[in-house]
Amino acid sequence: MDSLLGDVAAPEIRQQVRMRSEHGPKSLNLPLNPFTLAFSGSLETEYLDDFFNKSLKQARLILLSGIVFYGIFGFLDAKLLPGAKGTLWIIRYAVVIPGILAVIVFSFSSRFKQYMQMCLAAAITLSGLGIVIMILIAPPPANYSYYAGLILVLIFGYVFLRIRFIWAAVAGWTIVAFYEIASIWLTATPMEVLLNNNFFILSANVIGMFACYSSEYYSRRDFYLVKLLEIEQEKVKSANLELEERVRERTSQLMRSNEELVREVEAHRRAEEEKKGLENQLRQAQKMEAIGTLAGGIAHDFNNILSPIIGYSEMIIDDAPEKSPLTNKIEQILMAATRAKELVRHILTFSRQTEQELLPLELHPIIKESLTLLRASIPSTIEIRQKIDTGCRPVLADPTQIHQVLINLCTNAFHAMRDRDGILGVEMSEVEIGAADCMAMKLDPGRYVKISVSDTGHGIPKNILDRVFEPYFTTKKPGEGTGLGLSVVHGIVKSNHGEIKLYSEPGKGTTVNIYLPCIESDGFAPKKSSREAVTGGNESILIVDDEEYIVTMLNEMLERLGYHVTRFTDSTKAFAEFRKDPYRFDLIITDQTMPKMTGTELAEECMRIRPDLPVVVCTGFSEILSEEKARAIGISEYVTKPVVKNEIASAIRNALASRRS
């Protein structure tokens, strides 16, 4: 027995023992507050401890049964209110039941004892308020019958759930108050229905209070009688109890010391592991930073090289006679150059230097193009089997990122089979995700494009299956992978509101399923051809670029469109020419990265002299100047190389029109 009982509660209990022995059992006077049913002194703490230990399992079972009944009655929502069942089920299955389930889960915590009564009262209140909200949402007269659910909640709370009277009463009257507010002021409930429902609800609440009060009263009475009996035994057992208490205290101290030592050792081990992990992430981040810097330089040079290839190809096509054999060959060159342009976008995406461009896309051309690219790099011992449904609806995505997803997944599949023959399967189909699958799939109901990439490789062990999407986690040998492939794929899919699922069996292979939400095909328009009509003009244009071949190509391209062109490869000389007669030029086209004076510096100096001057920046790649920054300093249009005729022509007309307006 606790020494606290002997020191504090024992005098009261001993006095009760003497009174009962002298006058009989009727003289028992419980030291209870008649309103809160709380003991005085330390006896209340002992009772609450005893109450907690005896009622914890029952409370869990009652809460679990409450979840079952609350969930089962969801069929009434579908029966009575099929039109509003979705909203009612959100309240039922996404708010109330998870709330009760959270209380059950929290009951396994060591801190639950302190908050048990508050949590149980909250569960009762949440259940009742959920039904009150359903009454508000459901149209009459169907909502009149929901009051019966409140009675069930009150019965569960007062009678079956082991909760103290004071907390139960607060929860019960809170539910009643909200019901009254809902039925009287917020819904048009007929008076006869209101009176009938209120009679039963108030009666159930009052009867429940009496039942709960009586149950707790007799529980406390029994507990008090047990304590009286324990006092009688105290004389014999006090010495042993004191000795046992000292042993327990010493043992507890030793156990706490041992637990603290174990925690310190474990904390030190975790700290070392975290340190190694952070060092590895730092090394990987430094590698990625270096790759990003290299990618930016490559992008700038490639875009400059591609500009004359694309520009002259377009001009040759314009000059070639109709149906000329030369036209087809030049178009192939133009297609290859355009593919190279997209490759630059892939490099910049990989190095995190471009933002995703979400467009309505039909995925089958991208998948087939990716497989064609992969076929050249995968040995013939691996068979590629594709089953692509070309009738799938479009999705909203970035084409470069979709290409990146396919390349990463197929490359991983190839690596799993490179030591043997195998089959790399790629399938695409449109599927329907129903309400029953939403919880497991973590997706909203609707139509999705499903992309599956499978292999017949060695598979993934189950003990690491949950870690494959972690950044920098890889099972490859050092130097063979960064551990970022699946992490990047996971990030892209999630950013497009999709889901990725991985299934693997060691020795048999792996399948990765990707789900991307479809968009309505009515709003989808195919991308316009780059060979559309181009509008020219007769204005005077100053071209500045430090690459002679780009200046020459732009000069010829714009002269073909009717413009009067003055060109420079030195930005300082171009500025000097502009200062001689600022109104001689209607527009300036300038590169950004140039020696002596950058494109933005040239633009700012020229606009300082002539504020209404339209300026078009045409750059291969710049980490310093984005389109937003360019427009912020007054630049009219921002064009990225390689230069395409219709893009530069459109930018010129837009820039001139914006200044005139």
Please mark out the parts with pLDDT under 50 across 5 or more consecutive residues, or reply none: 1-10
**Over all CA atoms, what is the radius of gyration?**
39 Å
Query: What is the typical, i.e. mean, pLDDT?
Result: 81
Major sheet characteristics = 5 strands, mixed
Share of β-strand residues: 5-15%
How many separate domains?
Answer: 3
Order of helices and strands: HHHHHHHHHEHEEHEHEHEEEHEHEHEHEH
Percent helix range: 55-70%
How many β-strands, per DSSP?
12
Strand order of the largest sheet: 2-4-5-7-6
Shape descriptor reads elongated
**Please, how many helices?**
18
Question: How do the strands and helices of this protein lay out in sequence?
Answer:
Layout: H1 3-23, H2 43-72, H3 74-80, H4 85-106, H5 112-137, H6 147-160, H7 165-186, H8 191-319, H9 325-350, E1 359-361, H10 363-375, E2 382-388, E3 395-397, H11 399-415, E4 422-433, H12 435-441, E5 446-455, H13 485-495, E6 499-505, E7 509-517, E8 540-544, H14 548-560, E9 564-568, H15 571-580, E10 587-590, H16 599-609, E11 615-619, H17 627-632, E12 637-640, H18 645-660
Parallel strand pairs: 2-4, 8-9, 8-10, 10-11, 11-12
Antiparallel strand pairs: 1-3, 4-5, 5-7, 6-7
Helix pairs in contact: 1-8, 2-4, 2-5, 4-5, 5-6, 5-7, 6-7, 6-8, 7-8, 8-9, 8-14, 9-11, 10-11, 11-13, 15-16
Give your account of this protein's structure:
The protein has helices at 3-23, 43-72, 74-80, 85-106, 112-137, 147-160, 165-186, 191-319, 325-350, 363-375, 399-415, 435-441, 485-495, 548-560, 571-580, 599-609, 627-632, 645-660, and strands at residues 359-361, 382-388, 395-397, 422-433, 446-455, 499-505, 509-517, 540-544, 564-568, 587-590, 615-619, 637-640. The model is unreliable at 1-10 (pLDDT under 50). It has three domains: 3-237, no CATH class; 363-523, Heat Shock Protein 90 (2-Layer Sandwich); 540-660, 3-Layer(aba) Sandwich (Rossmann fold), CATH 3.40.50.2300. A hairpin with a 3-residue loop joins strand 6 and strand 7 (509-517). By secondary structure, the chain is an alpha/beta fold. It has a five-stranded mixed sheet with strand order 2-4-5-7-6.
